[in-house]
Amino acid sequence: MSPHLFLAGVPATGKSWLGPWLAEEHGYVHIDAEKCGGIDFDRAGLRREWNELVEAGRATSFLAAVGRLAMPVVVDWGFPTRFLYVVAALQAEGVHAWWFHAQRDQARTAFVARGGIDPRCFDGQMNDIEREWLVIALVFGGRILAGLNGDGSQRRPEALWSEITAAG
């Protein structure tokens, strides 16, 4: 399995919970792409290469810079679906990209419970996800996992990690 991971998916499904857990428990450099305008890219010294990836759709320089860190990296990004090309570029360089999925109503409940962001943002993002679902499913292939339990509760990072590592 590639040591580097990219986590995306439905809002409030555990991406931003798994990333810090991987940093603490498994020595990953965790980058939350949405935190404070991408400050984690600055901290890791990857801002220029990330911007190049997003602007040009090529991940070669980004992965070369990540390789110089000598630690595995996990990026989580609840990205707008228009950036699916970024996922494909990362995959072309060997990064394992995972989509965290959940039923809309359960994810919305988790999103509202988390607080801090207007639920209309969730609704807009879910509309984009539902519209682009066939493309998302093609890009992520078999790397789609349930971010929430059947009752709508959050899955534990250990369970998510177990599923990811079992897939190889």
Describe this structure in words.
- With 168 residues, this protein is of the alpha/beta class.
- Helix content is 53%, strand content 13%.
- It has a five-stranded parallel sheet, with helices on both faces.
- The computed structural class is alpha/beta
Describe the strand arrangement of the main beta sheet, using strand numbers.
2-3-1-4-5
The number of domains is: 1
CATH class bucket: Alpha Beta
Known CATH architecture: 3-Layer(aba) Sandwich
What general outline do the C-alpha atoms trace? Answer: globular
* SSE pattern: EHEHHHEHEHHHEH
| Helix share, percent | 40-55%
The CATH topology name reads: Rossmann fold
Number of helices: 9
Number of extended strands: 5
Give a quick precis of the structure.
It is globular and about 40 Å long. It is α/β, with parallel strands linked by helices and 168 residues long.
Which helices and strands occur, and which strands form pairs?
Layout (H helix, E strand, L loop, with lengths): L4 E5 L5 H12 L2 E4 L6 H6 L2 H10 L3 H9 L4 E4 L7 H9 L3 E6 L2 H11 L4 H13 L1 H8 L3 E3 L10 H11 L1
Parallel strand pairs: 1-3, 1-4, 2-3, 4-5
